[in-house]
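Run log, item B.
One chain of 380 residues. Sequence copied directly from the ordering sheet:
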Amino acid sequence: MMTDEFGTPKQRILALIQRNPYLSQQELSEQVGISRSAVAGHISALTREGLILGRAYVLPQAQRPIVCIGGANIDRKMRTTSPLQMGTSNPVRVQETFGGVARNVAENLARLGAPTQLLTVVGQDPAGAHLLAALRDCGVDTGGCLAVAGVNSGTYTAVLDDSGEMVLALAHMDVCAQQTPEWLRQCAAQRAAARLVVADLNLPAESVAQLLQDAQTSAAPLVIVAVSEPKMANLPADLSGLNLLILNVGELHVRVGRNLNTEADIAAACREVHAQGVRRIIVTRGAQGVLYSEYSEYSDDHDGKDNGGSLSHIPAPAVTVRDVTGAGDSFSAAVCWSLYHAPDDLGLAARRGVALSALTVQSEQSVLPDLHADLLESVD
C-alpha cells in the first residue's frame, strides 16, 4: 500500500492513476483504503472534471509527466582552498548534497513546474530514504522507485580546484546495475503515461537498448543524456528511436573514436551519429557554448565539401564560475522543459539550456533552490 500520499481519497486516486494508468478499481480500492463503489464514484468525478479521460484512465496530454530514468546518488564536492597540488595533500571544503544525472534533471524539472516522475534504484539504506524523501519534498513523483536490500545507494565525489573547475570525479554507482530490462518492464505503465522520457547512461547497456527499442513504437520522445566518457560504452551501436542525444565534445569523441579539434570535425561526427539513427543532437562545449543539429538539416554545400555548416551555435554568456557541478544536468533539464512545451523548437530549447546552465555555475548548489519557470520563459 502506498504510504506517502496525503490528501482526500479523490486526490490520492488521481495520484495513483498518474503513476499507473492501468490500475484496476479493485487495486485502487485496496491502496486508498475505501470501497470499490466509492472508487467508482471518484473515477466518475475525475472524468467529469476532465482530469482523466474515460476508459483506461488516460491522462490529458497536459498532465502527462516527464519521466526521468537513471542515477540518483549522494554527491560529495571537495573544493581546494588554494591552487591544487598533485601528489600531495590539499586542504578542502566539503559539501554533501543529493545528485545523479536523472535525479538532478528531475529536481530541476519539478522546480520549473513540470509534472515529473523519477524511476531509479537506491539502496535500502538511510541515504536512499533521504534521497527519495527530498525528491518528494520538491514535487517529484517517486512512486516507481525501487529500494533494494543489500546494495548501497550510489555516491559521486567531485574534486574541484580553487576556481570551481572539476579536476577529478569518482562514482560508485553499482546500484545502477539493478536497473535491468526486467525492471524497466515492471515500470512499463509509468513509461506509457509519459509525455517525454529522459534517460541517462548510468543505465546498463542492455537497458538502454530496451528503451531504444520501446521508443520506436512509443508516442513519447526519448532523450538520452550522456553521463561521462566511460559510460558512453552503454550506448548501443544502433540508435534508432532516439529523438535527442545530449553529450559533450569528449563524449562525442569517444563515440566516433577520433579527435574533434574543429567545428568541422564536430559536424562530421554529428553526421555520423545521425546516420546511426538519432534525430537530434546537442553538443555542449563549456565556455565555448553549444552546437546543435537535426538530421533533416544536414546536407553538403554546393561544392560537395563537408564543412560542418549545418551546425547551429549558441555562445555561452561570460559569467563568474563558482561551481560547475550540476551545470550539465540543469542544461539538460531546461532543454527537456522547453521541449515539453515546444517540442519542435530545438534552438529555443538549447538557448534555454544555456541560460539555466549559466545561472547554475554561478551558484554553489547543484540545483538552484529558487528556480522557477519565469527564468526560462523570458528566453526566446
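Observations after the first pass:
- Residues 1-5, 297-309 have pLDDT under 50 and may be disordered.
- The radius of gyration is 21 Å.
Flagged for discussion on Thursday.
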